[in-house]
Design a protein that fits this description.
mainly alpha, rod-shaped, 178 residues, 4 helices
């Protein structure tokens, strides 16, 4: 009987030492119930029950990062994937707004004269791109009398003021264009 009690005493001491060491080195964010110091006091001064309480109550479970069965998550269940999609959509919207602002700034072309009226290249007069005048060419451009080309509706085709109307013609410098 004495051997049994001695063996149980040794097992209780080993169990207590293991519980104190586990509590001392356990991640602070996963400890539940009491603070680490109080758990060590409970483990040391309440024999056998203190270490049992530590392992049952105080020691929190590990948080699982991935899925519980080790498989992959579907994209609609993965919060990181959904956050990435939302960030991409927001970034695409910012890019679209910036491109629109740049297009508006490009509409104020410094090569076009600023005087109002026909022939200023802005489509406000009778020779504008949207005017539908008889002087329009098949490409959607209407050359004005001052050497400017109004371009199409999206202003993708513009000529310099000193450029000739067709490739190969001599411009103001006398050299052929094209």
């Amino acid at each position: 009987m004495a051997r049994l009690l001695f063996g149980l005493g040794v097992a209780a001491v080993i169990f207590t030492i293991y519980a104190v060491a586990d509590c001392a080195f356990f991640d602070r964010t996963r400890i539940r119930g009491l603070r680490r110091g109080w758990w060590i006091v409970v483990i040391l001064f309440v024999p056998i029950i203190g270490p049992l309480l530590w392992f049952i109550i105080g020691r929190g479970r590990a948080t699982r990062v991935g899925p519980s069965r080790g498989g992959t998550l579907a994209p609609d269940d993965d919060a990181e994937f959904l956050r990435h999609l939302r960030n991409d959509a927001e970034q695409n919207e910012r890019i679209r707004r910036m491109e629109q602002e740049l297009a508006e700034l490009d509409a104020d072309d410094p090569l076009k004269p600023t005087t109002p009226g026909p022939g200023n290249g802005r489509g406000s007069g009778a020779s504008g791109a949207a005017g539908g005048s008889a002087g329009q060419t098949g490409s959607g451009t209407a050359p004005s009398g001052d050497g400017f080309d109004t371009g199409d509706a999206l202003d993708t085709e513009r000529k310099r003021p000193d450029a000739p109307d067709a490739p190969g013609e001599a411009g103001p410098s006398g050299r052929p264009n094209g």
